[in-house]
Backbone:
């Protein structure tokens, strides 16, 4: 009985940790558009608007693949995803191009100045990564340690029953 209980708790904890990692990486299925299985390309949307597919990962409300108008800015994309989370580091947003070029964007400076020239134009296949804060990393570490402590506590209590 002890082994079954311990095995069940271990399985639940592992599943929870994997789900947290997928959410942290923005790999959940939230915000995925109908074009998510297509390669990066231009798409003609309603009212003859040119759409591009871009990936949005990290600390936003709904990470995923978005088909957005080609005139959208980085701010429009993040806003379409529900905005940044409280744990987002807006001074370290990375834009990864298909040619492996990485562009660092300080969105906080843009928000203070309003200078649109600070925002690079989005291209088909771009991946935008909104980084998390050190506080978020610490909170995840504490959550993992809490889960391990709960498992160990159940194991110790199960051994005392004998």
Residues:
């Amino acid at each position: 009985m002890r082994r079954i209980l311990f095995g069940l708790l271990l399985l639940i904890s592992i599943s929870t940790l994997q789900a947290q990692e997928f959410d942290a990486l923005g790999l959940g299925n939230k915000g995925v558009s109908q074009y998510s299985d297509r390669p990066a390309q231009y798409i003609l949307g309603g009212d003859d608007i040119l759409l591009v597919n871009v990936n949005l990962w990290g600390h936003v409300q709904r990470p995923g693949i978005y088909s957005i108008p080609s005139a959208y800015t980085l701010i429009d994309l993040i806003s379409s995803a529900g905005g940044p989370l409280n744990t987002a580091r807006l001074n370290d947003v990375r834009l990864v191009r298909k040619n492996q070029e990485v562009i660092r964007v300080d969105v906080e400076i843009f928000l203070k100045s309003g200078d649109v020239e600070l925002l690079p134009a989005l291209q088909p296949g771009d991946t935008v990564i909104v980084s998390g804060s050190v506080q978020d990393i610490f909170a995840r570490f504490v959550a993992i340690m809490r889960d391990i402590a709960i498992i160990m506590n159940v194991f110790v209590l199960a051994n005392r029953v004998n």
In short: The CA atoms of residues 47 and 69 lie 11 Å apart.
